[in-house]
Amino acid sequence: MASEILINHNSEFVAELKECAKLLTEKLQGNQFEEASALIQSITEARDRHIFQTVGKLTRGLHNAIVNFNVDADLSKQPPQIEGSDIQDASNRLNYVIELTQKAAEKTMDMVDEAAPIAANLGQEASMLRNDWARLKRREMSADEFRELYERMDGFLGQMEVGTERLNKSLQDIVLEQGFQDLTGQVLKRVIGLIKDVEKDLVDLVRMAGQVEEITGIVDAVDNEHEMEDLIEKRKHEAEGPQINKERENVVSGQDEVDDLLSSLGF
Amino acid sequence: MKILIVDDFSTMRRIIKNLLRDLGFSNTHEADDGMTALPMLKSGDFQFLVTDWNMPGMTGIDLLRAVRADEKLATLPVLMVTAEAKRDQIIEAAQAGVNGYVVKPFTAQALKEKIEKIFERVG
Fold first, then answer.
1. Min distance B21 CA to chain A CA atoms (Å)
2. What is the ipTM of this complex?
């Protein structure tokens, strides 16, 4: 891995420095100032070379990342114009997931909207018939009314047959519509794969950058500590979308906990 | 009662609209963002606002603050219906003056209870 080569490279440089340091001390002790000066010059040159080489490795790492993720960009523009990339592809796929799930949800609700009145009507008619049937049982019905009931009952049974068939079809179609989960699941898996790759490359790059910082002696300004604290505080209040891990400390696990929290604060 | 439903996902707006209709509230209007909702509220004599939190233009929490800061809208009952479940956010919403907080996914019963509670308080 690139960063391992980097570690070895560093230790070579450090060994070289140690050698030179020893030599330098000798020269100084022997009052050979001109030679000591020349030695300091060559140490500086070695350090510069080393920095350039390390930075070169880092730049190469960045270029490789761009190649790995098929980034097709016009880097001469400001900001750079990205024509295409794996990440752009992943973005498109995720938009496809949003679109697909929305269509499936709408279609499912359409089918429910269609089916609901059928069920409601059947229920209503059954209720009315039941009342009349009860009257019949109590012998409160006239002959004419009975004949009417006879016909209505027949009609109702027919309605039931047709209605329930339609309801069953709607229910089946609703189940079929849930097939979106398979398609979206496949897309999401691919995107997860891509994200993991990006993370891996980022971590490698950060490690290489760390090496450069070490060599060049760049020290993080103290300000960064406060920046970190501010960032952590800000994150607490940032919207995060739906929580996946209900066990997380600062997260409620359902409506009951929300209610408890609010009433405990007097709201 | 004239109600405004604000959520950037049309599916959720439809679900809430349907649930409100089942509860007897059929005078509902929709907006897909805090940005488009605010002018509607300012000019529209709405009596109830149901809003999500996460929206691209203006978030629900910012919409709530804008409503509470507006002279005409300050007392408008607001119910948040959102996936945001961090304690800090729930507290933030309460402190900003929200009248109810329903967390997604929610049941019809939960929505009904919260709405009843809000209007029993406001009278």
1. 13
2. 0.78
First to last CA, chain A: 57
Give the chain B residue whose CA is nearest to the CA of A264.
Answer: B91
Per run of 10 residues, the mean pLDDT along chain A (length 267 residues) is: 58 83 90 90 86 87 85 84 86 92 94 94 95 92 91 94 95 90 89 91 86 72 71 81 81 90 86
Test B86 with A243 for CB contact under 8 angstroms. yes
User: Across the interface, do A254 and B103 touch by the CB < 8 Å criterion?
Assistant: yes
Q: Look up the pTM and report it.
A: 0.75
* A210: Cα separation from own chain's centroid: 27
> How would you write A206-244 as a 3-class SS string?
HHHHHHHHHHHCCCCCCHHHHHHHHHHHHHHHCCCCCCC
What residue of B is the nearest CA neighbor of A113? B18
